[in-house]
Amino acid sequence: MDAQGRGRAENVDPADQWVLNPSTGEYELRPPSSAAQSPVPGPRGSAPSGAAAPARGRKEAPGRVPPPRGRRGAPEEAPGQRGRRPAKKPKGRRVLLWTGGTMAFVLVAVGAAGYLYLRHLEGNVSTTDVGNAGKSSFRKDEAFNILVIGTDKRTGEGNEGYGDKGSSGHADTTILLHVAEDRSNATALSIPRDLIVDIPDCPTKQADGTTTTVPGRQAVRFNRSLGEDGRDPGCTMRTVEEATGISVDHFMMADFNAVKTLTTAVDGVKVCVGKAVDDKQSKLRLPAGESWVEGEQALAFLRTRKSFGNSGDLDRIKVQQQFLASLMRKMSSGDTLTSPSKLLKLAEAATKALTVDKAIGKVGTLKDVALELKKVPTKNITFLTVPVVDNPAEAVKATVVLDDSKAAQVFDMIRNDVSFTEVKQKQKKEKAAVAARLKGTKAPASEVRVRVLNGGAPPGSAQETLRWLQVEEGVTKSENGGNAPENLGTTTLEYAPDQAAQARRLADVLGLSGSAMKPGESVTNAQGLPAMTLTLGKDFKGAGVSLTPAAKAPEGVQKSSADKVTCAS
Q1: Long-range contacts of 562-565, Cβ-Cβ distance < 8 Å, separation of 24 or more
Q2: Residues near 121 by Cβ (< 8 Å), separated by ≥ 6?
Q3: Which of 7, 211, 251, 337 has the smallest set of CB atoms within 10 Å of its CB?
């Protein structure tokens, strides 16, 4: 019996059946706990419909794989029971494998069972040095934002007829994926390619190691942030940050081939359409209801616009999100991830279609990203689109602009790590500790000593805040510390343990949440006394404006979750 069959029969998470063989130094599938173990009788012991059959001709793993170690302090196990786990609720190994639009993009998350093969897969992945557009490393103890980009570049066999002829690869489909710090939820924010934005000046690394700055452009389509004039994914990252105020940590990018190869690797994706489709442009033909698509047909489904909604890009984005949710449900069901042969086929296809920033291009880092992504429950992954309205400057509507009444609140929630779904917090003790920072005695405003730094707020914000604190709020022992060493997405207040009462008073004055309060160290102010450090981040809205983040999405913003089945119409 292979990992899939045995995992289902014994009610064991299949990925936990992979162990390190000390003789070879590699991960291998753990054999049954007893060689004489007989098959489980009845329906639970037989492979379910659609399950992967054991691989033919599979060779025995070299050397003997030792049984799993017992936990320290665990009770003695009965003979013949070593290595067996008590029955528990099965859970699928989650993979975020995302494919989108008239192109494709993918997050590789093969989890613990795929760690062995990642050594080989690293050679498949292409990397780009984006300089300071993103972070220099990946951290597992914080929230992170990955920009997933799909280009319309005509690379790969059979793709000559897709996209724009001669295109250097525009940002045709883009999703900003925010993963919460406690991994209880994630948000996938689609950015329309026709959104009017300002593209900032962009330093790009050349092949010879030199850096060339590509001049920015004002009031142009978002998709021009990539490819045109030599702009690399770092330019798209900078453009997203400029438009939303959300710091982008890393990027992942793929082209047309990703849709075809990845959907084939998972044996197709189930889609649903409200009415029969016969699209002459994309060549998609589907009956009403549910169908399975893969390869060219999957690409046609994602490229189709004329058959859905009002034939515009915003309706195509909804179809993309429905497709991605379906793909994620299949991946988390376990049918693919519990079959080693399918897993390797999938990983090979995915990494060949993938380009990432250098910070996450190594096998160990990809593994870390994968293990963090799989912690997020599918039901708590929210899809939504940047709130927009038709461009009022156009007589014939072809582009869109931000809906200022809604977009700012959406961006604010992501910056402050607020979920768009109601989630059961995984780390209740930690959440309680964060909330407790606001509770307790507050020092008088006249006793609060703080140095104010500008860490991403508009120029002059530190001085504006200083004046407001001293004149309006009586925080007279405050001073301007200039610019912070680095920009922050959110405003933070760092304080020493003996400054907690001062911190609570300042948090009350500023409207700071408990998560913005960072216990740490004090600094020495101009008078030689210990002071706290207030760093104004990109969420700063002006002196006196509360920094407490919104608790829910604004009215009228359409969103969906990855566990819901919907039909394109």
Answers
A1: 562/324, 562/325, 562/328, 562/329, 562/378, 562/379, 562/381, 562/382, 562/383, 563/325, 563/329, 563/378, 563/379, 563/381, 564/325, 565/272, 565/326, 565/329
A2: 108, 347, 348, 351, 363, 366
A3: 211
Query: HSE (CB half, 13 Å, CA atoms) of 453?
Result: 21
Query: What pLDDT band is residue 240 in, cutting at 50, 70 and 90?
Result: very high
Residue 334 CA to residue 337 CA, distance in Å, equals 5
State the Cα–Cα distance between residues 503 and 526, nearest whole angstrom.
Answer: 19
CA-closest candidate to residue 95, choices 471, 562, 486: 562
Question: Hey, what are 23's tokens?
Answer: 């003789």
Handedness of CA 413, 398, 99, 359 (dihedral sign): negative
The mean pLDDT of 301-326, rounded to a whole number, is: 86
Burial class (CB in 10 A: 0-12, 13-18, 19+), 291: middle
Task: Compare 512 and 341 and report the one with higher pLDDT.
Answer: 512
DSSP class of 225:
G
Mean pLDDT across 116-123: 64
User: In Å, what is the CA distance from 461 to each residue of 101, 305, 380, 453, 477?
Assistant: 40, 45, 36, 9, 18
